[in-house]
Amino acid sequence: MKIGVVGASGYSGGELLRLLSSHPTFKPSYISAGSNAGELITSVHQHLTSFAGERFASTEIGEMDACDLLFLALPHGESGKLVRELRSDVKIVDLGADFRINSSTSWEKYYGGVHSGAWTYGLPELPGLRVEIANSSRVANPGCYATSIALAAAPAVQSGIIDSSDIVVVASSGTTGAGRSAKINLLGSEVMNSLTSYKFGGVHQHTPEIEESLQKLTGDQVRLSFTPILAPMPRGILSTVTAKLTKDIDSKTARAIFEDAYSKEAFVNVLPEGLLPRTASTIGSNSVHLQVAIDDHTNRIVISAAIDNLGKGAAAQAIQNANIIFGLDETLGLSREGFSS
Question: Which of 138, 285, 291, 294 sits between 20 and 30 A of 92, alpha carbons compared?
Answer without folding.
Answer: 285
